[in-house]
Design a protein that fits this description.
Elements (H helix, E strand, L loop, with lengths): L1 E3 L6 E3 L29 H12 L3 E6 L4 H4 L4 E3 L1 H9 L6 E5 L2 H10 L5 E3 L8 H4 L3 H13 L6 E6 L4 H9 L3 E3 L4 H11 L2 E5 L2 H11 L7 E4 L10 H6 L2 E4 L11 H10 L4 E4 L5 H4 L4 E2 L2 H10 L5 E5 L2 H10 L4 E4 L15 H12 L6 E2 L3 H15 L10
Parallel strand pairs: 3-4, 3-5, 5-6, 7-8, 7-9, 9-11, 10-11, 12-13, 12-14, 14-15
Antiparallel strand pairs: 1-2, 6-16
Helix pairs in contact: 1-15, 3-4, 7-16
Bound molecules: iron/sulfur cluster (SF4).
Subcellular location: Cytoplasm
InterPro entries: NadA, NadA_sf, Quinolinate_synth_A_type3
GO cellular component, one term: cytosol
Length: 395
């Protein structure tokens, strides 16, 4: 059974639950070789032995949103860009084992040497936000802007959380990458280059930055919807708008609502609400503090004993912060559990399988960006790094 993708006109397989498999979208669900059982009591011991056997040949990176069972084996933890830069600073490591999601491993491959191989323990660990902007859609949108006569005055800016081919598109078209901590500076730079900005894939980060940090109005922003005819906007709207926001969002941060904030304020007296800028506008405008993952960690680490915090970000991180600070009341912003399901694909069985395979001389799940894409994505990353006042990036 197939359906047609309105953007690419390419047939997409539609699989009924439990019938058939789609190897192109379910990559990594099955591992060649034996994936250890999650109930194997020797799993931690096997991980330790494989890690020791790899020694300096491997460098293991763990994103802040990873499970504890994985993060305990990380040589460094951090946000996506910090991890990619950490990897680049370890040229002696033959294998970069990236416990994160696909776009992060791509960035690590772009920033590391040709002699280094980046491994993603489960190829199904994607990012739903990154997947919301596909290169064919973005190229079609750019053509739509050209038809409306605004492409030449528009500068594309992409969030770090995007695929390598989107970063390369931005690099080829005079734009830059940004992170959640430097989005304002990147947008200011973009407005020095042109009259409008096309921002993707996260509409919330783009809107929050433009309106709350840079003084644009909500009316200055329009949403480019790849699933609507004409991208859901008229030529006049394209000509009048300053910020063209791609209709994408994070499936974790996008869950929080203004009701979550109201409810936690009633439930926890005196609570400080601290959220990530990938949350919706209605949430960040109700919060007390807004900032990147690193900002959230620093704020909780430095908060006075006895203070109360409701944190709107991924649950693994919030739980770790609560465990680390038993003298503070750290709670999750929403009552519903909210892990990043794709990040959680990387579990101990996949990590053990990847490391043991490397010990046996089998390189598995290598993430490799082709040279042309890597070059142009690197151009977009370098433009971000060249911005004055840019600090090490945060996700
Ligand atoms: S938390 Fe959101 S942006 Fe980060 S990897 Fe998961 S889906 Fe993507």
């Amino acid at each position: 059974m197939t359906v047609t993708d309105p953007q690419s006109a390419a047939p997409l397989p539609l699989l009924l639950l439990g019938r058939g498999a789609d190897p192109s979208t379910e990559r990594g669900v099955e591992c060649p070789g034996d994936l250890p059982s999650a109930s194997d009591p020797d799993l931690v011991d096997r991980a330790r032995k494989a890690r020791e056997a790899l020694g300096e040949r491997a460098f293991l990176l763990g994103h802040h949103y990873q499970r504890d069972e994985v993060i305990q084996f990380a040589d460094v933890s951090g946000d996506s860009f910090k991890l990619a830069r950490d990897a680049a600073a370890r040229p002696e490591a033959e294998f970069i084992i990236f416990c994160g999601v696909h776009f992060m491993a791509e960035s690590a491959d772009i920033l590391t040497g040709d002699h280094q191989q980046v491994i993603l323990p489960d190829l199904a660990a994607g990012c739903s936000m990154a997947d919301m902007a596909r290169i064919l859609q973005v190229e079609d949108a750019w053509a739509r802007l050209a038809d409306a006569g605004v492409a030449s005055s528009t500068v594309p800016v992409t969030y770090m959380n995007s695929s390598a081919d989107i970063k390369a598109f931005v690099g080829r078209n005079g734009g830059a990458v940004c992170t959640s901590s430097n989005a304002q500076r990147a947008l200011e730079w973009a407005f020095e280059q042109g009259e409008k900005v096309l921002f993707f894939p996260d509409q919330h980060l783009g809107r929050n930055t433009a309106v709350l940090q840079m003084g644009f109005s909500l009316e200055d922003c329009i949403v480019i919807d790849p699933h609507q005819p004409g991208f859901g906007v008229t030529d006049e709207e394209l000509r009048n708008a300053r910020i063209l926001l791609w209709k994408g969002h994070c499936s974790v941060h996008g869950r929080f609502t203004a009701d979550s904030v109201r409810e936690v304020r009633e439930r926890v007296p005196g609570v400080n609400v601290l959220v990530h800028p990938e949350c919706k506008y209605e949430v960040v405008t109700q919060a007390d503090y807004i900032g990147s993952t690193e900002y959230i960690i620093k704020t909780i680490d430095e908060a006075p004993s006895g203070s109360a915090w409701a944190v709107g970000t991924e649950l693994n991180l919030v739980k770790r912060l609560a465990d680390r600070h038993p003298d503070k009341n750290v709670v999750f912003l929403d009552r519903n559990v909210c892990f990043c399901s794709t990040m959680n694909r990387i579990d101990l069985p996949h990590l053990v399988w990847a490391m043991e395979s490397l010990v046996e001389g089998r390189v598995v799940n290598r993430i490799q960006v082709d040279p042309d894409t890597a070059h142009w994505a690197g151009v977009a990353l370098d433009r971000m790094l060249a911005l004055p006042g840019i600090s090490p990036a945060k996700d």
